[in-house]
């Protein structure tokens, strides 16, 4: 069954590295991408570094539904990354949940 894009959960997450932790943050995120892409309900999971704000990693994610995103939040890949947030992040994780309209 195909879920219409308007029913999927899209999000943009912003992770701002502490000074000196920029590469460590990028490496930690890059390391989990292959596992996350295998999670049930993961339709897209890509990491980008901001050209305007060095040290900021921007994630673009698409999940089949809220249940898939909730499962991801409890999965080993994300919880392992989140366990490093105190060391890596200079600001709290910010997530913008989106609903596709076109």
Helix content: 25-40%
Strand percent estimate: 25-35%
What topology, given as strand order, has the largest sheet? Answer: 2-3-1-4
CA-atom Rg in angstroms: 14 Å
Shape: globular
Q: Largest sheet, described in full? A: 4 strands, antiparallel
Order of helices and strands: EHEEHHHE
- Mean pLDDT across the residues is 95
Our measurement of the CA-to-CA distance between the termini, rounded to an integer number of angstroms, reads: 20 Å
Tell me the quaternary state: single chain
Structural class: alpha+beta
Total strand segments: 4
Number of helices: 4
Low-pLDDT runs: none
Structure description:
The chain is α+β, with helices and mostly antiparallel strands. It is 35% helix and 28% strand. The protein has four helices and four strands, in the order E-H-E-E-H-H-H-E. It has helices at 22-37, 66-74, 76-82, 85-88, and strands at 9-16, 42-49, 56-63, 94-98. The chain has a four-stranded antiparallel beta sheet with strand order 2-3-1-4, covered by helices on one side. A hairpin with a 6-residue loop joins strand 2 (42-49) and strand 3. The radius of gyration is 14 Å and the shape is globular. The model has no long low-confidence stretch (mean pLDDT 95).
């Amino acid at each position: 069954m195909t879920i219409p894009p308007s029913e999927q959960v899209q999000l943009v997450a912003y992770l701002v590295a502490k000074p000196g932790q920029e590469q460590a943050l990028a490496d930690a995120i890059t390391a989990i991408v292959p596992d996350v892409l295998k999670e049930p309900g993961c339709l897209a999971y890509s990491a980008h570094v901001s050209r305007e704000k060095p040290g900021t990693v921007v994630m673009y994610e698409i999940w089949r539904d809220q249940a898939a995103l909730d499962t991801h939040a409890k999965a080993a890949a994300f919880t392992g990354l989140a366990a490093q947030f105190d060391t890596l992040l200079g600001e709290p994780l910010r997530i913008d949940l989106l609903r596709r309209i076109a």
